[in-house]
Amino acid sequence: MSWRAPSEVFPVSAERRVVLSLWADFTEDLRLTADNQEKMPSASCDTLLDDIEDIVLQGDLKPQDRHSARKHVVPKARKRNTQKYLQEENSPPSDSTIPGIQKIWMRTWGCSHNNSDGEYMAGQLAAYGYEITENASDADLWLLNSCTVKNPAEDHFRNSIKKAQEENKKIVLAGCVPQAQPRQDYLKGLSIIGVQQIDRVVEVVEETIKGHSVRLLGQKKNNGKRLGGARLDLPKIRKNPLIEIISINTGCLNACTYCKTKHARGNLASYPIDELVERAKQSFQEGVCEIWLTSEDTGAYGRDIGTSLPALLWKLVEVIPEGAMLRLGMTNPPYISEHLEEMAKILNHPRVYAFLHIPVQSASDTVLMEMKREYCVADFKRVVDFLKEKVPGITLATDIICGFPGETDQDFQETVKLVEEYKFPSLFINQFYPRPGTPAAKMAQVPAQVKKQRTKDLSRVFHSYNPYDHKIGERQQVLVTEESFDSKFYVAHNRFYEQVLVPKNPTFMGKMIEVDIYESGKHFMKGQPVSDAKVYTPSINKPLAKGEVSGLTEEFRNRLGNHLSSVPHASAAVRQDPASSRMAPRLQRLHQDCALRVSVGLALCALLLAFLVKVYN
Questions:
Q1: Global model pTM greater than 0.70
Q2: Domain count for the chain
Q3: Which of 42, 410, 483, 512 could be bridged to 536 by S-S, CB 3.0 to 4.6 A?
């Protein structure tokens, strides 16, 4: 049988011509090589070459000599770092660590805005399978959510970091302290998540558990415009299932010389009205009966997006069920003064607490100018007087800083007179602390002893009057939402957001009831429920259980897998056993890993088959 070229056996396609050309060149090279070898003279050897193993010199040691020589060899023991070996044995490499099965302990300091951020972070971590624990010692990772307003809050934060390091805990830092000053020495080498990056907390925690240090401190922007922060429809775990905290904006328009929060939260950035209304509606569908609106300055809401606080509030009251209530957060005098008429109407609405927090900080115009507060005492009094007239019985809370740099005894006495005149039922007295990086920290400081004494003197004035004595004997409607610190009473609030303690009857929780006031204290009243009075149930649905994840969107359901498909609506909470809720994401990740490996294997098989076809063709 004669040899035939591949072109004679298989039809030659245009794609194979290059391969056939290379084949012809290869066979021609083989033929020429064979011809040259026939013409070359053969090599001859005079002696036969011994096997390589037999070529041994006379002076070389024989095998038996080598064996006897071993007796004189002393083996040298290799020192082993026992401590390092045990450490490596107990701590597997980061690649072998499976995220999503660890326990996480959270601690939050500071304002309602910070608490809302903490609830969102807890919800996302729980949705991905992590267990949120209240036992710090059992936790694998500590998530510390900080406040930068005053030195004591940062001191507690720093001490918690030190304690976590001593207990060999993984650490993730959040809140205003690391956002404002991420390069502080005690933060080096630790993972940080910024105040506008809380929607990525799962990524930061996973990398931290693997032994990496991650820092996400960027700002949320859309077409170059700064946003209010992370989305409002993220999963969350409410500290109190009956109360929803909604941040309506972040940052502010002021530049107060003592404020460190501005360094962390930045300039004003507001959420759109429709997103805030949707968040409120979702909350009521999950059994919430009270909503708190919070931000660094609620009065400035909307000025960056062409709207206003009254416009938002009128939309919100439309979706508040009967018996549920809305509470406004802190607002500075300059911006609320532009909407006083509308604000008075809203605060008279039956489903809005007649309550407003307006910080004055000082009753001295000289001090206010040094603080760059952008108003004078007369402006503050005008706002207070107008609201007290138009909203009878309104509760007005305020803040005062004692011992600001340059404050004289006369300045302080003006502040004392203001408190004596208005007898604020809620007064937050703060000793001044110079915060690093603020203009006030560089000013001439008031002696520490003077600051302490002024704080004590003002506290004495505040405790000299009882704001609720005249209300004994009144019949009030109150909304019950929480338990007292001593666990002896339930805590309710009346129309003016005044605290009323009622008996611990489980049927009262989350309900609006009628009580007769029979006792009062400095910060509370006590009420006896009226037996034949109507009880309002404001919740549309049954409230979630404590620690239950709420607000899982379709996006999160897709990530978690089909085990959530039984939940009827995107805004409904995940009602399932905690163990199964943690196991489902882990099984989902295992399924995804298996699918990935199968896909890679099939791709490699396809490439191998294509290679073999090309070779044989």
A1: yes
A2: 2
A3: 512
